[in-house]
Amino acid sequence: MWRSPEPRKFYDIIIVGGGGHGLGTAYYLAKEHGLKNIAVIEKGWLGSGNTGRNTTIIRSNYLWDESAHLYDHSLKLWENLSTELNYNVMFSQRGVLNLAHNEHDIKEIKRRVSANQLNGIDSHWADPKEIKKLVPIMNINNCRYPVLGASFQPRGGVARHDAVAWGYAMRADELGVDVIQNCEVKKIRTKNGKVHGVETTRGIIRAKRIGVVASGHTSVLAETAGVRLPLQSKPLQALVSEPIKPVINTVVMSNAVHAYVSQSDKGELVIGAGTDGYNSFTQRGGYNIIEDTIRSIVELYPIFGKMKMLRQWGGIVDICPDASPIISKCEVEGLYFNCGWGTGGFKATPGSANLFAHTIAKDKAHSINAPFSLERFVSGRLVDEHGAAAVAH
Amino acid sequence: MLLIKCPYCGERDQSEFTNGGEAHVTRPKNPEQVTDREWAEYVFIRSNPKGIYYERWVHSHGCKKWFNAVRNTSTDEILLTYKIGETPPPIKKFQNTLKSPSGEPDVGSGNFTVKKP
């Protein structure tokens, strides 16, 4: 699959974090920018963080132009990713529904659908009749918050999360990237305002440029280099049921009652819950959060009422004040951050990696990720995507 | 779920409380002289430590009073709660039981409040 090399003493570029975003960044640095002497350093095993913990939903129906361009760039890369990597990432464009349960939802979602269409994104307003046709098992009117409509993006869907990490790791490895697992970065060393290297559990490794893609732990690492990021880390939970025969062939998300569900190829229902209301690094999350989600799931799909849940887990997500990511340089020369993906980073994996590689290689943001700089918190030019982010936080 | 000790009402279930983010953040004294960068720091940037954290809670479904708490974010243990206006105890007073600087326990993922004997 990939080598397990001993870390060298020096790399031109070190990527901290061996999830999809980090491995993808290394891949594009080597592939598109022809760079060599690159390492990806991961504290656990590949994809052991949020890459392996999310509910794998992929869509690009975001409100603002900046986000629409960013997420659709990613979606376009998803559409060719299996071919690009010559590895099946099981990308399945089964469509994504975002439900409206009240007057405000209708207005907000219709506005977003119009904005999407202006940006060339295949989103449309689906009425309850169409929803019932797409998802016959849904209880749309005999519940406390009836389903009044939805946005539907047919190009959206799901992919196999581990395969994304493995695919990028294999191809990056072939291009000479050192993928180093079980090596925790403890500190980023700087010298005269420039990066110097990283202290790891396997010694000090020097580097000219360092890209940090450590999701929930990014701000902890940034602090060691004296950089304060506008991030807050919270547990986000998900759970899967016992496997059953195919019963739901699209992805259904509801922001208002906070329930989203899809069915994996193995037949398990994959259910996403919300974030806890306080900062935490415990990868488990509060029981009250899944209780809320299950309550809504059972009301929306009475057929699931007697199902058993197999597993529940939590991942630590890094949330930005405007629910948009940061792909940016910072005041330390040679230090780059790709973080703040919060509750919805998986869908952005190829796009984020591609743009982060560009930012590191050229020492300058690509026009797509330029609006997602750290500078926006000083200028006040935020990209508020709390509506489209779909997970309340 | 957490059990939180409100300094006014005593121990209650977490569902009665709402978290208010980082405690002891002070508004700039001379707002007219503050630069955009300093405003950004005050408005958007908060500490996010893995370990000892000073935070605010409000007993929303109880006495409705705000108070401060010291919690270890890597275990969710609440080490102390105290009233607004009281001097926060120094961080040295609390022992961070975690070994590595980024706070990862040797085994598992910070789940050790439940693993305690």
Task: Explain what the structure shows.
The complex is a heterodimer of chains A (393) and B (117). Chain A is an alpha/beta fold and 393 residues long. Chain A is built from 9 helices and 18 strands. In chain A, β10 and β11 form a beta hairpin. In chain A, α1 (20-31) runs parallel beside α5, α1 crosses α8 and α2 crosses α8. Chain A starts with 9 loop residues before the first strand and ends in a 14-residue tail after the last helix. With 117 residues, chain B is mainly beta. Chain B has one domain: Folate-binding fold, CATH 3.30.2270.10. Helices cover 11% and strands 29% of the residues of chain B. Chain B contains 2 helices and 6 strands. Chains A and B meet through β9, α6 and α9 of A and β3 and α1 of B.
Layout of secondary structure:
The complex is a heterodimer of chains A (393) and B (117).
Chain A (H helix, E strand, L loop, with lengths): L9 E7 L3 H12 L6 E4 L15 E2 L6 H21 L10 E5 L2 H16 L5 E3 L1 H7 L14 E5 L3 E2 L2 H14 L3 E3 L4 E7 L2 E7 L2 E10 L5 H7 L7 E10 L9 E4 L4 E5 L5 E7 L11 H14 L8 E11 L6 E4 L5 E5 L9 H14 L13 H4 L14
Parallel strand pairs in A: 1-2, 1-11, 2-8, 4-13, 11-18
Antiparallel strand pairs in A: 3-7, 4-6, 5-6, 9-10, 10-11, 12-15, 12-16, 13-14, 14-15, 17-18
Helix pairs in contact in A: 1-5, 1-8, 2-8
Chain B lengths: L2 E4 L3 E4 L4 E5 L13 H9 L7 E7 L7 E7 L4 E7 L28 H4 L2
Antiparallel strand pairs in B: 1-2, 3-4, 4-5, 5-6
